[in-house]
């Protein structure tokens, strides 16, 4: 992972990876991420990949190529007037924005026959992932697992997901942030 010197630490709590993951996208890196998620979930059936807007969309899209181009569905934070009104929805607290969002997925795109791999950029407290788990539970879809690019293991996200019995695979696991430095597990 390309942390040094490109990642920036804000207030010893937020990791900004805009240079390669969240604003400017390193497609070569994303291809490797997609391959690795395929390797880690190769024993699972996946009929759809689900993520949350915005940063997860590109990662999920490239990952989908390695799962026979399954559809990618993303939970919308800002549903426009053109969105179907028949939706699954959940409230998610955003740590970086310090506010609640209502995320929505049209019922047209999830069904009880789906086997869903959740893909996202970060796992910290687990709020976004738990929101997606709620949407998938509402649809009665089966959760095949959750793939995370960067996990902050010093927060509660992993515990919350594992308590649900979901296979969780994180590519980079951060043990702590001290004095503006990322300490990996």
UniProtKB/TrEMBL annotation:
What keywords is this UniProt entry annotated with? Answer: Cytoplasm, Glycosyltransferase, Purine salvage, Transferase
Q: Name one GO molecular function term.
A: xanthine phosphoribosyltransferase activity
The record, for CDD domains, names: PRTases_typeI (cd06223)
One cellular component (GO) term of this entry: cytoplasm
Annotated residues for binding of xanthine: 22, 152
Which family, according to UniProt? Belongs to the purine/pyrimidine phosphoribosyltransferase family. Xpt subfamily.
Q: What is this protein called?
A: Xanthine phosphoribosyltransferase
């Amino acid at each position: 992972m390309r942390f040094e010197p490109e990642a920036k630490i804000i207030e010893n709590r937020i990791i900004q990876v805009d240079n390669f993951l969240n604003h400017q996208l390193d497609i070569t890196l994303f291809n490797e991420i997609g391959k690795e998620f395929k390797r880690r979930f190769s024993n699972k059936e996946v009929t759809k990949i689900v993520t949350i807007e915005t940063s997860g969309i590109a990662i999920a899209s490239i990952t989908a190529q390695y799962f026979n181009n399954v559809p990618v569905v993303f939970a919308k934070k800002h549903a426009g007037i053109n969105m179907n009104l028949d939706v699954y929805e959940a409230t998610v607290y955003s740590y970086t924005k310090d506010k609640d969002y209502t995320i929505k997925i049209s019922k047209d795109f999830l069904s009880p026959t789906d086997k869903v791999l959740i893909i996202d950029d970060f796992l910290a407290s687990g709020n976004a992932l738990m929101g997606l788990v709620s949407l998938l539970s509402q649809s009665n879809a089966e959760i095949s697992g959750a793939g995370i690019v960067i996990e902050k293991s010093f927060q509660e996200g992993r515990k919350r997901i594992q308590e649900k019995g979901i296979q969780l695979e994180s590519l980079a696991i951060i043990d702590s942030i001290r004095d503006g430095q990322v300490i990996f597990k």
